[in-house]
């Protein structure tokens, strides 16, 4: 049985609490002989700043680079509001994404039948929803140069952001989208704004070419990003994989998140390019939510987003799709029995603790 080397970065706030439950799940798979994990734990975010004055240390960066995958909790909190910009807790996560080259951000939006009434939309619109937003994470308007505010001669100011994509950047995210679609319902929807943006024109051309030449078996459709936002709220089940740039992905994945109920339910994966010789990708798995300082240290956090992130690691880094399916099924079954943490419980009804939710999922496994 192959052994996988995982770096655990619990971080701040509820990070350590939910990471504790993720560890329990990893141990279970180890004990059952399904997979074996070697884990190492290190500091990131505010916890790292307190220890060494940096949001992530060089030693930890080295561990992340050597690991088969990184499991990340959450960072930040009011305690670190005043720290220097470059040492702010979020800088640790941004450095990891950038230095590990994690260009592909996978955000599944799954609506468990038991939670369909917690969605902002009607039950029949979201029940059984299982879509995946694939966001390009290291390019586009977030990083394009020039990026500046300039004062003009007449005293007026001018702000510039640059939306910039190369063929290579679009090709590699397109391939991830098509590969993912093949493991799902075989459909890719590519969202851009080719009607007003040159980057949208190139995006559309490159995705079309990759689809035709390399993935003729996968259904491809193009949708304008604004229309996609509307369609997500109108009838989201028409989608399987939605692929888009950094900015549209940021917005569309937040829209999709609201279809599913609670922030405490949403996992994510960030993947790098496959190594040309080994085929291995750098990868980081984390819940979509933040460190929730308002509930930290009180065993109130929902650990499902973190536990489902472990499931994504099993699926996308370790080739353990069946184990991931088993874990997803256990989560769905536990929810079906009515077990709820406070964020997903109906007002006035009983809620379980972080640890009780973790234990219930283990028992169901
Ligand atoms: P960030 O900027 O790091 O994304 P944020 O400001 O978006 O953070 P979160 O930390 O995600 O905020 O918290 C938003 C709200 O959702 C808070 O009220 C928090 O308590 C709640 N919340 C977030 N994650 C969970 C969770 N796992 N379980 C229960 N409640 C959660
Ligand atoms: Mg947030």
From TrEMBL:
Important for catalysis (site feature) positions: 142, 193
GO biological process: L-leucine biosynthetic process
Enzyme class: oxidoreductase
Any GO MF annotation of the entry: NAD binding
Pathway(s) annotated for this protein in UniProt: Amino-acid biosynthesis; L-leucine biosynthesis; L-leucine from 3-methyl-2-oxobutanoate: step 3/4
InterPro entries, alphabetized: IsoCit/isopropylmalate_DH_CS, IsoPropMal-DH-like_dom, Isopropylmalate_DH
Binding-site residues, Mg(2+): 226, 250, 254
Subcellular location: Cytoplasm
Predominant location: cytoplasm
Note describing how the cofactor binds: Binds 1 Mg(2+) or Mn(2+) ion per subunit.
Isopropylmalate dehydrogenase-like domain: residues covered: 5-361
EC number, as in UniProt: 1.1.1.85
Cofactor: Mg(2+); Mn(2+)
PROSITE patterns found in the cross-reference section: IDH_IMDH (PS00470)
Pfam family of the protein (one): Iso_dh
Function: Catalyzes the oxidation of 3-carboxy-2-hydroxy-4-methylpentanoate (3-isopropylmalate) to 3-carboxy-4-methyl-2-oxopentanoate. The product decarboxylates to 4-methyl-2 oxopentanoate.
PANTHER family on file: 3-ISOPROPYLMALATE DEHYDROGENASE
HAMAP family: LeuB_type1
Family named by the database record: Belongs to the isocitrate and isopropylmalate dehydrogenases family. LeuB type 1 subfamily.
Protein name per Swiss-Prot or TrEMBL: 3-isopropylmalate dehydrogenase
Organism expressing this protein natively: Prosthecodimorpha staleyi
Top-level taxonomy: Bacteria, Pseudomonadati, Pseudomonadota, Alphaproteobacteria, Hyphomicrobiales
């Amino acid at each position: 049985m192959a052994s996988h080397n995982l770096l655990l970065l619990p971080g701040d706030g509820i990070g350590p609490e939910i990471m504790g439950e993720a560890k329990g799940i990893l141990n279970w798979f180890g004990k059952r002989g399904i997979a074996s994990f070697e884990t190492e734990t290190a500091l990131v975010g505010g916890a790292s700043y307190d220890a060494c004055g940096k949001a992530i240390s060089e030693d930890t960066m080295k561990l992340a680079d050597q690991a088969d995958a990184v499991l990340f909790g959450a960072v930040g909190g009011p305690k670190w509001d005043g720290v220097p910009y470059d040492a702010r807790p979020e800088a640790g996560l941004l450095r990891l994404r950038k230095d590990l080259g994690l260009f592909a951000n996978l955000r599944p939006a799954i609506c468990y039948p038991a939670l369909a009434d917690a969605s902002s939309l009607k039950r029949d619109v979201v029940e059984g929803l299982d879509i995946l937003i694939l966001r390009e994470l290291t390019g586009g308007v977030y990083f394009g140069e020039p990026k500046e505010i300039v004062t003009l001669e007449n005293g007026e100011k001018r702000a510039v952001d640059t939306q910039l994509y190369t063929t290579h950047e679009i090709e590699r995210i397109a391939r991830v989208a098509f590969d993912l679609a093949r493991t799902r319902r075989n459909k890719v929807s590519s969202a851009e704004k080719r009607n007003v943006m040159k980057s949208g024109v190139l995006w559309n051309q490159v995705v079309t070419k990759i689809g035709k030449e390399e993935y003729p078996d996968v259904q491809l459709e193009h949708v304008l990003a604004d229309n996609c936002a509307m369609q997500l709220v109108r009838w989201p089940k028409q989608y399987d994989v939605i692929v888009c740039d950094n900015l549209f992905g940021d917005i569309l994945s937040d829209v999709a998140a609201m279809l599913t109920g609670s922030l405490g339910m949403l996992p994510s994966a960030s993947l790098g390019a496959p190594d040309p010789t080994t085929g291995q990708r750098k990868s980081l798995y984390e819940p979509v939510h933040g460190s929730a300082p308002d509930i930290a240290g009180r065993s109130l956090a929902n650990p499902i987003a973190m536990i489902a992130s472990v499931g994504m690691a099993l699926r996308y880094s370790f080739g353990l799709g069946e184990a991931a399916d088993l874990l997803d099924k256990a989560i769905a079954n536990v929810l079906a029995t009515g077990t709820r943490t406070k964020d997903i419980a109906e007002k006035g009804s009983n809620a379980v603790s972080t640890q009780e939710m973790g234990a219930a999922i283990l028992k169901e496994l």
